[in-house]
Amino acid sequence: MIRSWSIITAIIGYCRRDSRRPSTRTTPPTRAIISNRVSSSRGRDDRMNTEAFKMFKSIVGAENVSQDPAVLDSYTYQWMGEMTGDTTRFGPYRPVCVALPSSTEEVQAIVRACNRFGLKVKAFSTGWGLYSAPGGEGVVQLDLRRMNRLIEINERDMYALVEPYVIWAQLQAEAMRKGLNCVTIGAGSSTSALANCTSVMGVANNNVSMGYNERNVLGVEWVLPDGEILRLGAPGSGNSWISGDGPGPSLRGVMRGAFGALGGMGVFTKCAVRLYQWGGPAELESVNILSMDERIVDYPENVKLIAPYFNDRTSLEQAVAKIGESEIAYSVGLLERGLLTLGLGKTNAESAEMRENLHPVIPKHIFTVLLVANSRSELMFQAKTIDAILQETGGKPFEMVEQENFRDIITLLLVKGGSVPARGVFSPTGSFSPILCGFFATRGTLVKAMDDSEEIKRKHIESGLLGDDMGEGGWGPLILDHGHSEYFENETLFDPQVPDSIQALVDVTTETNESLAKKKLIIPFLSQVKVARAQKKSAHDTIAPHMNTDYRHLQRKFKQVFDPNDTADSCNYIDAGK
């Protein structure tokens, strides 16, 4: 066991070294593997040291470790794999084996074995995209699905203690029964709460009332890349899980920063998630999960949906910022009309018809605000506050969206995630990828990025290689930090079976990010991860050159202190060897 202070002391000592001195980093042992780039034949992959495989079996049991080619290939088959897998969804690298640990101790033992045998380790829980797949050769894939316990909901201190395979929907359902709630991110309520809080960014419509999950992670149990266990915050002193910081300097920034290391800094086995007060019902029961037929059984009296629209994006952005400042909204945002209408039909033909009919009717510059109050009088106050903001910014309520059928599906979208986004992004062409994914805007920069992405995407839609959402496939705007930070991403539909369509996706993502860089705007992190992986580079090695300072110098030093043998697969994070 190691504690925070010993880690901090090691970091300070390392970072003070003269960078001109030769590195004293431990040299990894010779890897007992050969190249395991996936071949077209996908034959049996027995390239890992036999002794290492026997050790893994002794740790997790023979039934929980596999080198079966079909099993291994299933872990390379990931959403967005087309960008790295030679136009197939299979990524270019097959893991040398897959292990399913059931406890922190088993994770620790596997990580130590990987250090011993010169293997890399890549953990994931629910998995969501190419970020989850190995980024190189000799990687042991840790599937954490057996670690699925919702250990505790602490009502008094308002947090939940979870293992990696607890999903947001599960946590939200249990929390709501106790008058509490959590952030359910746009990637879906079926994604891992722990992964989002510790390892990868994820934004949500309800960030406006419950914050960004970077701030909502409390105590953490962390298996470091060298096999040591570190407990951050209160659990490191044996005093519950209520705090993720101290004693002394916090390691939250080293652990995840704004975007997360995506597996590049070890394995997280437990974390406490901040919960918030929920004024709605204990259960929000719905029926008929098919798009426009979806209904809330009893719409709560203390909940109200408002859909303001504006003449231009600048006015819309001003209203978004003021709503954030007022601190009254539970949830904000919407899909732009091109994508929203594609998600309303039961079939693609029906959705296309709805798009043609509804696109001219729904205003271009529109979003929704969901109010959730503890009383009728509080709801009236919130609604009057919204009215005052709209009068000041020139917004008007769009009453069609407030009708029962639209109201119910959008309320479910803003509270739970809903079915409309999934239909809209997957059904028309088979897949999608967001551009601007990871674009956290300050006031004024949001509009520039929205205009940029729409213009660039329209050009590629006109080529016929991307799905036609009329250039209006965005999600947002979302509010963070009481209106001081805003978020928007532009979902882009492509055909994963057509190589030219895949290339068009790569091109539109690259062009958008390059355009933002020229304007001195932030480069969206998760969008750039995909571009970097397509170029066989790590994300930060393609982002840092466009920043005011090259932060990689210290980032690599942290990586080398925590991971002296370069054991954690950091393909989505930083190349530790440069």
What brief labels describe this structure?
578 residues; alpha+beta; Uridine Diphospho-n-acetylenolpyruvylglucosamine Reductase, domain 2; Vanillyl-alcohol Oxidase, Chain A, domain 3; 5-stranded antiparallel β-sheet; 20 helices; FAD; D-lactate dehydrogenase (NAD+) activity; FAD-binding oxidoreductase; FAD binding; FAD-bd_PCMH
What does this molecule look like?
With 578 residues, the protein is of the alpha+beta class. It has three domains: 31-146, Uridine Diphospho-n-acetylenolpyruvylglucosamine Reductase, domain 2 (2-Layer Sandwich); 150-277, Uridine Diphospho-n-acetylenolpyruvylglucosamine Reductase, domain 3; 300-525, Vanillyl-alcohol Oxidase, Chain A, domain 3 (3-Layer(aba) Sandwich), CATH 3.40.462. Strand 23 (474-480) and strand 24 (485-494) form a beta hairpin. Helix 1 packs across helix 20 (552-562). The longest helix is centred in the C-terminal third of the chain and has 20 residues, at 499-518. GO terms for molecular function: D-lactate dehydrogenase (cytochrome) activity; D-lactate dehydrogenase (NAD+) activity; FAD binding. Residues 90-278 form the FAD-binding PCMH-type domain. This is FAD-binding oxidoreductase.
